[in-house]
Amino acid sequence: MAETLEFNDVYQEVKGSMNDGRLRLSRQGIIFKNSKTGKVDNIQAGELTEGIWRRVALGHGLKLLTKNGHVYKYDGFRESEFEKLSDFFKTHYRLELMEKDLCVKGWNWGTVKFGGQLLSFDIGDQPVFEIPLSNVSQCTTGKNEVTLEFHQNDDAEVSLMEVRFYVPPTQEDGVDPVEAFAQNVLSKADVIQATGDAICIFRELQCLTPRGRYDIRIYPTFLHLHGKTFDYKIPYTTVLRLFLLPHKDQRQMFFVISLDPPIKQGQTRYHFLILLFSKDEDISLTLNMNEEEVEKRFEGRLTKNMSGSLYEMVSRVMKALVNRKITVPGNFQGHSGAQCITCSYKASSGLLYPLERGFIYVHKPPVHIRFDEISFVNFARGTTTTRSFDFEIETKQGTQYTFSSIEREEYGKLFDFVNAKKLNIKNRGLKEGMNPSYDEYADSDEDQHDAYLERMKEEGKIREENANDSSDDSGEETDESFNPGEEEEDVAEEFDSNASASSSSNEGDSDRDEKKRKQLKKAKVAKDRKSRKKPVEVKKGKDPNAPKRPMSAYMLWLNASREKIKSDHPGISITDLSKKAGEIWKGMSKEKKEEWDRKAEDARREYEKAMKEYEGGRGESSKRDKSKKKKKVKVKMEKKSTPSRGSSSKSSSRQLSESFKSKEFVSSDESSSGENKSKKKRRRSEDSEEEELASTPPSSEDSASGSDE
């Protein structure tokens, strides 16, 4: 007889939904792992009281009852597997696996039995249907009537909203059968009632999803989020995991609560509750319980009076009430020293945390991916730039997650982490020894060591060390001295092209100062030259008077034949017309083409002739324009100055020469060296005529010589 039995495609019925997973039966008990959430149900062999085999919608199913009243249903078995399971139950669990079929008569009159957390409606000895009371969200009573309302299931296409039972009156005095029925339901139902005072209240906590500020009231069995607009009641049974994640700025902390089923607001589903705390916020907390009750309920995990950081208090209280370990980042450290990687997911920027047993991304939308559901990962080149890369994860269900815009420096650290966790890398292909070493039936957040506890111990040690250390951190680093003289010297050497190769060491200080001054001036001039931008060449527009280029032989023929083609093919489009014309031209004889070639040659000759005439006319007009410009300049000079003979003419010429200096003349006067003057003259050779007219008055004696130069 085999020690274990394993079934891969098994469905567990939980709150009306069928969750796919893996089932393993061993001598110690029965383990079922949910493929979607990673949650593990562990039933000890000694707790089993009854096993029932029956035909259901998905083949055959197994119904298990335990001593504490819990009911577990697993479907998806084949009929041939009954004998194997029956023998296993007899050998290892000392239980008879009974065959019990459901009643399919269709009657609506029968008896109701309450067994543990199950309501069973029977006709005779056969059950018609069963209702897990944990699915009931509300129970209301009327005259001879009880109405049950149920939690809604998002995954199911059709959900059961309510069931009504008619309870006939009985002759027994003092007992109301309707109230008795309702009390039996409410004692086991998942109905959240805020009775009594909260254990503690955290005021105005910043919540990222759902967004807003909420007061969190902690009750013994559920969590109450009270905001300005919405209220949420979260039973602790729906909490899957707890995460405490440091922000990249090392000043804030994320506290993430994973929920299944999620909380709802309209059509929106929140699978994660994310709180953001500042590390500087402290709180003193007093629990609304006496010390004996605290000790009895929490067994030393909490005390009546506590104080510390706000995020520590919230995480500590949640850990004690939910009875789940807090997951924190492991040994991973990125390029910047942080325990996370900045990236983008679905066009929103966030942080990706590599954990010991998975990845979690916060915060919009939050994503948690376990290692055991990953098929492979892929390192892809960034689509927009080579400075970043994409990290792709594909799960065994075929879902793909792409985290983009990761800095190139993070590649080595992330690759080493993935390699150490023995995840399959698509780029490299499958290699031997890359199979995961973790147990497939282990819970995804159950580590052998409590990482959160170790983290708290380390932080406590660091605080003690900081308190004991003396603050002798004096600024030993000396700033680099800033020497303006040295920098100026470097600049002069960079720009000075005429600097002498060697200088004598016997020269005096005054000569050196003069040389430095000259070099600085030259550097300044050279810098000004470089900073001047070249004038942008504006493309001249086409002259409308210029003769048009001649057409080719094909275009001449097309213009002449276009109307004929249209008449031969009525309704033809422009593109089809051009295609048809091309086909006709291609099939035309050489003699007919020569005729159009001659016409094209004649048109080309006429164009060349017209072009010569046009260029000749344009040259004369440009000369006329130049002469007009000269006359205009002379008239302007005469208006501005009324020259007189003798000394007055000389003084006026000097004034005019000073007032009509162009930019080139001003810059050449500022530089006192003769070499620079000659360079400036060469540069302004293009506009020499206009500049000379502007700088020399027409009445001066030197006007003739100035114009001849």
From TrEMBL:
<dbReference type="InterPro" id="IPR038167">
    <property type="entry name" value="SSRP1_sf"/>
</dbReference>
<keyword id="KW-0832">Ubl conjugation</keyword>
<keyword id="KW-0804">Transcription</keyword>
<feature type="domain" description="HMG box">
    <location>
        <begin position="547"/>
        <end position="615"/>
    </location>
</feature>
<comment type="function">
    <text>Component of the FACT complex, a general chromatin factor that acts to reorganize nucleosomes. The FACT complex is involved in multiple processes that require DNA as a template such as mRNA elongation, DNA replication and DNA repair. During transcription elongation the FACT complex acts as a histone chaperone that both destabilizes and restores nucleosomal structure.</text>
</comment>
<keyword id="KW-0227">DNA damage</keyword>
<dbReference type="GO" id="GO:0005730">
    <property type="term" value="C:nucleolus"/>
</dbReference>
<dbReference type="InterPro" id="IPR036910">
    <property type="entry name" value="HMG_box_dom_sf"/>
</dbReference>
<feature type="compositionally biased region" description="Acidic residues">
    <location>
        <begin position="470"/>
        <end position="496"/>
    </location>
</feature>
<dbReference type="Pfam" id="PF00505">
    <property type="entry name" value="HMG_box"/>
</dbReference>
<keyword id="KW-0235">DNA replication</keyword>
<keyword id="KW-0805">Transcription regulation</keyword>
<keyword id="KW-0238">DNA-binding</keyword>
<dbReference type="GO" id="GO:0006260">
    <property type="term" value="P:DNA replication"/>
</dbReference>
<dbReference type="GO" id="GO:0035101">
    <property type="term" value="C:FACT complex"/>
</dbReference>
<protein>
    <recommendedName>
        <fullName>FACT complex subunit SSRP1</fullName>
    </recommendedName>
</protein>
<feature type="compositionally biased region" description="Basic and acidic residues">
    <location>
        <begin position="577"/>
        <end position="624"/>
    </location>
</feature>
<dbReference type="InterPro" id="IPR050454">
    <property type="entry name" value="RTT106/SSRP1_HistChap/FACT"/>
</dbReference>
<dbReference type="InterPro" id="IPR011993">
    <property type="entry name" value="PH-like_dom_sf"/>
</dbReference>
<feature type="compositionally biased region" description="Basic residues">
    <location>
        <begin position="625"/>
        <end position="634"/>
    </location>
</feature>
<dbReference type="GO" id="GO:0031491">
    <property type="term" value="F:nucleosome binding"/>
</dbReference>
<dbReference type="InterPro" id="IPR024954">
    <property type="entry name" value="SSRP1_DD"/>
</dbReference>
<dbReference type="Pfam" id="PF21092">
    <property type="entry name" value="SSRP1_C"/>
</dbReference>
<feature type="compositionally biased region" description="Basic and acidic residues">
    <location>
        <begin position="534"/>
        <end position="546"/>
    </location>
</feature>
<dbReference type="InterPro" id="IPR048993">
    <property type="entry name" value="SSRP1-like_PH1"/>
</dbReference>
<dbReference type="Pfam" id="PF21103">
    <property type="entry name" value="PH1_SSRP1-like"/>
</dbReference>
<dbReference type="InterPro" id="IPR009071">
    <property type="entry name" value="HMG_box_dom"/>
</dbReference>
<feature type="compositionally biased region" description="Polar residues">
    <location>
        <begin position="696"/>
        <end position="709"/>
    </location>
</feature>
<comment type="subunit">
    <text>Interacts with MYOG (via C-terminal region). Component of the FACT complex, a stable heterodimer of SSRP1 and SUPT16H. Also a component of a CK2-SPT16-SSRP1 complex which forms following UV irradiation, composed of SSRP1, SUPT16H, CSNK2A1, CSNK2A2 and CSNK2B. Binds to histone H3-H4 tetramers, but not to intact nucleosomes. Identified in a centromere complex containing histones H2A, H2B and H4, and at least CENPA, CENPB, CENPC, CENPT, CENPN, HJURP, SUPT16H, SSRP1 and RSF1. Interacts with isoform gamma of TP63. Interacts with FYTTD1/UIF. Interacts with SRF. Interacts with NEK9.</text>
</comment>
<dbReference type="Pfam" id="PF08512">
    <property type="entry name" value="Rttp106-like_middle"/>
</dbReference>
<feature type="compositionally biased region" description="Low complexity">
    <location>
        <begin position="497"/>
        <end position="507"/>
    </location>
</feature>
<dbReference type="Pfam" id="PF17292">
    <property type="entry name" value="POB3_N"/>
</dbReference>
<feature type="DNA-binding region" description="HMG box">
    <location>
        <begin position="547"/>
        <end position="615"/>
    </location>
</feature>
<keyword id="KW-0539">Nucleus</keyword>
<dbReference type="Pfam" id="PF03531">
    <property type="entry name" value="SSrecog"/>
</dbReference>
<dbReference type="GO" id="GO:0006281">
    <property type="term" value="P:DNA repair"/>
</dbReference>
<dbReference type="InterPro" id="IPR048985">
    <property type="entry name" value="SSRP1_C"/>
</dbReference>
<keyword id="KW-0158">Chromosome</keyword>
<keyword id="KW-0007">Acetylation</keyword>
<keyword id="KW-1017">Isopeptide bond</keyword>
<keyword id="KW-0597">Phosphoprotein</keyword>
<feature type="compositionally biased region" description="Basic residues">
    <location>
        <begin position="515"/>
        <end position="533"/>
    </location>
</feature>
